Structure formats: structure tokens, C-alpha cells
Amino acid sequence: MRINSTAIFKGVMIIFPLAISCTTAAPVTSSTIRKDMAAIKRDINVNRSDINSLKNKRVGNTGFYYVVDIEGNVVFHPQTALIGTSFKNHWFINKIITERSGCLTYPLGNRTHVVFFEQLNDSEILCLSIVSDDIRQTSLECRQAELK
User: Fold this and answer.
1) 10 Å Cβ neighbour count for 77?
2) Which of 1, 109, 116, 121 has its Cα between 20 and 30 A from that of 97?
3) Which residues lie closer than 8 Å to 132 by C-beta, 6 or more apart?
4) Mean pLDDT score of the chain
5) Cα separation of 117 and 114, whole Å?
6) Residue 90: domain span
């Protein structure tokens, strides 16, 4: 069963898809996330239509993939209504666009969210957003983002 969780952040409503499952998955670590992202990047760069397989791909209970371009526009998101939306004026997207590879954490409500991101090609960045509770240990490489 899938439900949506919404949050209001700086006057913008953000919808986070959540997958509720009773199955046991392998522990989520930053290492497994990085390996998964490398495989996804390789697959998408070989066959662009593989990007569509991300729509139903979940990591842990809350993790999901999306792609933004270097202008801050959503190229792919499991919530299809967000595709084409510009988030260039949002601090975390600006960090992702500027750094193009890395990991950041930020508080949202009473939870800490983690975003892993890797440059997909010259103009796009693959991102994974996940609640930190889903990760066995939050990586030291992830730094607390400054909210602006």
C-alpha cells in the first residue's frame, strides 16, 4: 500500500511518496546506496528509458529517486506532477546543482532527511531522498545542510 506524506517547507508543499511494506529488506547503508546509484547511472546512460524504472523503486521504507537538471528543473520524479517544476530557488537543490555529487542532511518536521546525489550526465543529477531512520548509520560524508 502506498500513501503520500506532505510537508510545508518555506511556503512550498512537498509531497514525499512513502511505501509501506511488511517485507524485510537488506539493511540500508550509505555503501549500498552508492553501489545502487552507480548501477542506476550506468543503466540510464546505456538506455535512457530505464529512468522510468525508478518510479516504483524504493530504498528502505521512505527512500525514492528523482532527477534534476543543472537548471534546477525536475526531470524525473515518482510524483509525475512535479516533472518540469523548477526548484532552482530552493536551497537544497542549489547545493545539489553546485556540488553535483555528495550527500547532505537536513531537518524537516521531526525527522532528518538525507539526500545522496551523483551527476548522471553533463546536464542531470540523480538524487535519492531518504529519512535517516531508514539508514543503518548516517554516513559521516553527509553534512548538515544550512537551511536558507
Assistant:
1) 22
2) 109
3) 105, 111, 112, 113, 114, 138
4) 82
5) 10
6) 24-144
Which residue shows C-alpha cell 521531526?
110
Number of domains in the chain: 1
Does residue 16 lie within any of the structural domains? Answer: no
Residue 60, all three cell numbers: 528502505
- The single-letter DSSP state of residue 127 is E
Looking at residue 12, its pLDDT comes to 52
pLDDT digits (tens, 9 = 90+) for 31-48: 899 999 999 999 999 999
What pLDDT score does 11 carry?
53
Residue 61's CATH number: 3.30.450.20
The answer to whether residue 48 sits within a structural domain is yes
Helices (H), 23-90: 30-46
Confirm if 126 and 120 have CB atoms less than 8 A apart. Answer: yes
Let me know if residue 75 belongs to a domain. Answer: yes
